[in-house]
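Translate structure to sequence.
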């Protein structure tokens, strides 16, 4: 009996053990089945259901990136204030260099202008003036008006004499007479010689030319015995068309070139002497050296000593 009971107990124990195993098997079975069902899962992947799963998985992945992109785009959309995109523009070096070049040129021109003004503040070297102790016509004229000096006290009283002498039939250089050759001031004829950059081929009447000096003109003369045709052409380029200047031959003046304004004169035997141009630049319409300021140079006479039947007016 005991043997049967024990065998029954064992039998029962085996049965319970079997049930227990079967109870535990469901927990382990899905693992085995999932491992074992990979093949069936693969088979299902080719089916409709896996296709949805496959569609969802990429959708999630692409959906996330699409969301991120759209959120960035949404920030810069019309409904939101987006951050301004700053693009660095290259520096316009061409324009900068152009303006810099213009500035340099402008400074150079200003410097040149300042130099010219400074250079004209003093008369050229080597000029002979007839004002004695006075610097120019303005100073000696003021001294006369103030009673500080009389004409008799001056070394060259003719520098302040401006009487228009009566004209006569004498059209030679002896009408009137002058102390300097060519004349540089003094009493003169009533008509001035046209001095609008005028170049005369023959000698002109002194009395008319001196009247032009009174108006602020510069008279350039040359000795025809010393200056040839090329030299005459070279000198005429300095005068031709330049207002308040005139040029004519002056026989027997003794030097190649002489330039004169009222009360001053410069003479040279060098046609290329730079002082000729300096004299012109300094004395044309010089306010301190013009006996009759603002008087015209146009509308005068064009008479030469060779013009028969033409008489200087005065």
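Result:
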């Amino acid at each position: 009996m005991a043997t049967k009971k024990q065998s029954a107990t064992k039998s029962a124990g085996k049965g319970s053990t079997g049930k227990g195993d079967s109870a535990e098997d469901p927990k382990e079975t899905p693992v085995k089945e999932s491992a074992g069902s990979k093949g069936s899962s693969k088979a299902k992947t080719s089916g409709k259901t896996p296709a949805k799963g496959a569609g969802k998985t990429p959708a999630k992945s692409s959906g996330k990136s699409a969301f991120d992109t759209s959120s960035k785009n949404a920030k810069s959309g019309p409904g939101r204030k987006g951050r301004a995109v700053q693009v660095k523009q290259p520096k316009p070096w061409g324009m900068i260099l152009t303006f810099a070049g213009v500035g340099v040129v402008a400074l150079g021109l200003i410097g040149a202008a300042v130099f010219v003004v400074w250079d004209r503040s003093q008369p050229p070297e080597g000029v002979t003036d007839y004002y004695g102790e006075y610097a120019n016509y303005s100073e000696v004229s003021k001294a006369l008006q103030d009673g500080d000096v009389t004409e008799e006290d001056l070394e060259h009283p003719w520098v302040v004499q401006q009487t228009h002498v009566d004209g006569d039939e004498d059209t030679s250089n002896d009408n009137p007479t002058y102390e300097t050759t060519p004349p540089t001031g003094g009493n003169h004829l009533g008509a001035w010689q046209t001095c609008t950059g005028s170049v005369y081929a023959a000698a002109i009447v002194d009395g008319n030319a001196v009247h032009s000096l009174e108006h602020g003109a510069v008279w350039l003369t040359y000795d025809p015995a010393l200056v040839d045709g090329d030299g005459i052409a070279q000198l005429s380029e300095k005068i031709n068309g330049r207002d308040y200047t005139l040029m004519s031959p002056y026989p027997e003046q003794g030097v190649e070139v002489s330039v004169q304004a009222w009360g001053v004169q410069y003479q040279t035997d060098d046609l290329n002497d730079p002082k000729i141009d300096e004299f012109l630049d300094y004395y044309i319409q010089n306010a301190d050296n013009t006996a009759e300021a603002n008087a015209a140079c146009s509308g005068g006479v064009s008479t030469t000593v060779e013009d028969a039947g033409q008489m200087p007016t005065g």
